[in-house]
Amino acid sequence: MTDQPGFTPTGTIASVADRRRVVFATVVGTTVEWYDFFIYATAVGLVFGQLFFSALGTNTVILGFATVGISFLFRPFGAFLAGHFGDKYGRKRVLMWTLILMGAATALIGVLPTAEVIGVGAPIMLVLLRILQGISAGGEWGGAVLMAVEHAPKHKRGIFGASPQIGVPLGLLLASGVMAIMTAVAPGDQFLAWGWRVPFLLSVVLILIGYYVRRNVEESPVFAELAARKEKAKMPIVQLFRKHALLVLVAALVFAGNNAIGYMTTGGYIQRYATDPKGPIGLEFGPVLWAVTGSAVTWLLSTLVAGWVSDKIGRRNTYIAGWIMQLIGVFLLFPLVNTANVGLLFLGLAILTVGLGFTYGPQAALYTELFPASIRFSGVSISYAIGAILGGAFAPTIAAAIVEATGSTDMVTWYLAGMTIIGLVATLLLRDRSGIPLGPDHEVEQAKSPIYGLAKV
User: Fold this and answer.
1) Strand, coil or helix: what is 7?
2) What percent of the chain stands above pLDDT 90?
3) Which of 56-65, 259-268, 360-369 is predicted with the least confidence, judged by mean pLDDT?
4) How big is the chain by its Cα radius of gyration, in Å?
């Protein structure tokens, strides 16, 4: 075991204050990152089609949602880079750079000229900045969850791991809330003229706060042990795919089942569907944004509860319960949204987010316990990025295309139900490894495949 001061033989730091600082830093950092990521998706559903994609003379709604998905295609690139450097040089350093990259891209979107000013150059620059957001998002999640879970006591990994997870609903809450406020401050044409830019420019302040908080936390104790022993993997990504390719795919499918449904709101689809003046509902921007903001609160709470529950009954059992709740939410969503009643729209989203929380809260601990210490950053980051592509990348685009082709949301419901079932099946393929030792002393045990029917990969 390492003789570094402050570390216990279990690979966790001894100071409760240090643990709390890590939790706070992961919550703040991931909230800022996902605020930046979601503010784009919200703006796509509300204004970007008119302001940027009108120059292309095609279906601006579907095209706008496609740009949300394009960024996902670059998440694996970000995950490959972050995984490689995170396994070689540490979790903390990578997290600082992903935060800066995301903030810079978001702030630049806030000052972009529109298509009315520069024509097709506007959507091109917008997409390029969205790609930078995708690269950053691909690297952010893995580092954040490892910082949280690898610092956690063995019996509290689920609740510690839920701390970066709640950054997603917090980011959605903040993004939707700020947009809702701006629709009131700058209503109508003013929102189109300048109001939408303010949430993007606000990113500069949030990034400075996130940077300050993150720079004051300690490196992950598991990585510190690896570094002290000079046992860091030389080519972690090569080792990952040579030995654990099937595990990466199964883990990715677990996340895909959650992510496709989550992007009905985080990808901006429900916002656009409910506010489209040519659609069947035609609600005002503000009330819909407040309903989404409220559902982010229920998502946050259920995510925290699920992390805590997974420490009591295991990650696998928590997920199974979550898939059942998520399936119920999927079948209730559009019948409630289609009433054109804001209160029932919120109810539909709230019910859905309970299931989403239970299939997202335990994910940090689940992923951390799946992969060996020396390639863990690569494993969790790449599994997450691939799952995002298979799940949420084009879910809003697919939903918009289905409704346009059929004139109904019925097939969207079945599409989301199918993705939920895929997540359930992938979960059933995995053994529960709650509590497995995470340190480098236990690489042999960690390398055994958690997939039923396989001893090693």
Assistant:
1) strand
2) 34
3) 56-65
4) 21
DSSP string, 408-432: SSHHHHHHHHHHHHHHHHHHHTBPP
Maximum Cα–Cα distance for the chain, whole Å? 66
Ramachandran angles phi, psi of 443, nearest 5°:
-60, -35
Distance CA 115, CA 273 (A): 23
Of the candidates 341, 324, 293, which has an alpha carbon nearest to the alpha carbon of residue 179? 293
Percent of the chain scoring above 70 in pLDDT: 89
**Residue that the structure tokens 């610092």 belong to:** 151
> Which segments within 96-157 are labelled E, that is strand?
none
pLDDT at 12: 43
Instruction: Indicate whether this model's pTM tops 0.85.
Output: no
What's the rounded Cα separation, in Å, for the pair 406 and 357? 30
pLDDT at 267 over 70: no
In terms of Cα–Cα distance, which of 425, 389, 378 is closest to 232? 378
Distance CA 43, CA 338 (A): 22
pLDDT of 229 above 80: no
Q: How far apart are CA 433 and CA 439, in angstroms?
A: 14
**Paired tokens of 223:** 């990585």
Please provide the size of the chain in residues: 457
Whether residue 113 contacts residue 56, with contact meaning beta carbons closer than 8 Å, is answered with: no
Q: Which of 387, 383, 386, 392 lies closest to 69, judged by CA?
A: 392
Q: What are phi and psi of 212, to 5 degrees?
A: -60, -45
